[in-house]
Write a structure and sequence with these properties.
By secondary structure, the chain is α+β, with helices and mostly antiparallel strands. It is about 25% helix and about 35% strand. It is built from four helices and 13 strands. The strands form three sheets. Strands 1-3-2-6-5-4 form a six-stranded mixed barrel. A four-stranded mixed sheet has the order 10-7-9-12, with no helix packed on it. The longest helix is centred in the C-terminal third of the chain and has 35 residues. The radius of gyration is 29 Å and the shape is elongated.
């Protein structure tokens, strides 16, 4: 699993005043918890861009005051207007201690429904799971090789082993193969045309019956 390594600087002054001073220096305040201690530190935000701005799941390796901590990114606070990163929470990974993480979903196989004109839509990007650091994975696989037009796969169809506990609701749709608008319109036109032809045939038969009755 890929890890992003960077260095943090211990924060000696906390509270609003200390946080304001950190940001004035162009740094971002952070906190690390989950292990034996809570550590307040700051980082250069450019060092974590590949960790934050990615659809992939990555670990963080943070060097602080001579020690290195393997962590996961837990929460990010953004400025409501500028989208600037204001604060980051990290959780330390401790051997044997379970953590809750959100793992990205990837597809495997080729959907038969797509081959006949359907469109595969991904409706869920990540699934929350619970596991120990030893069994962390960077993706969850969903098999779409049997997915026909109009069918869906759900969280319950995700392939996991016994070391991973899925916390998301099992009935949430992950992906579906839907009929494109153009195909729906074409099908509706064909059905309307077919109904029209049936109506003409029916009218012709009734008309013939009335004409025969008149001749009698």
């Amino acid at each position: 699993m890929e890890a992003v390594a960077f260095t943090g600087q211990i924060r000696t002054e906390l509270g609003k005043k200390g946080t304001k001073a950190i940001r004035k220096e162009g740094k971002t305040p952070c906190v690390l918890y989950g292990g034996d201690q809570i550590i307040h530190f700051s980082i250069d935000v450019k060092d974590v861009k590949t960790l934050v701005y990615t659809p992939d799941f990555k670990l963080a390796e943070i060097s602080i005051d001579g020690a290195t901590y393997k962590c996961i990114l837990k929460e990010i606070q953004f400025h409501p207007l500028t989208e600037e990163i204001r604060h980051i929470d990290f959780v330390e990974l401790v051997d044997g201690q379970k953590v809750n993480v959100e793992i990205p979903i990837r597809f495997k196989g080729s959907s038969p429904g797509e081959k006949v004109g359907g469109k595969l839509y991904q409706k869920l990007r990540r699934v929350k799971v619970k596991t120990t650091p030893d069994y962390l994975i960077d993706e969850l696989l969903v098999d779409v090789s049997t997915l026909q037009m109009g069918q869906s796969v759900r969280v319950k169809d995700i392939e996991v082993d016994d070391n991973l506990e899925i916390l998301s609701s099992m009935n949430i749709p992950v992906a579906s193969v839907e009929v494109p608008r153009a195909l729906r319109s074409a099908k509706a036109g064909e059905e309307a045309e077919a109904e029209g032809e049936e109506g003409e045939e029916s009218t012709g038969e009734e008309g013939g019956g009335e004409e025969s009755a008149a001749e009698e």
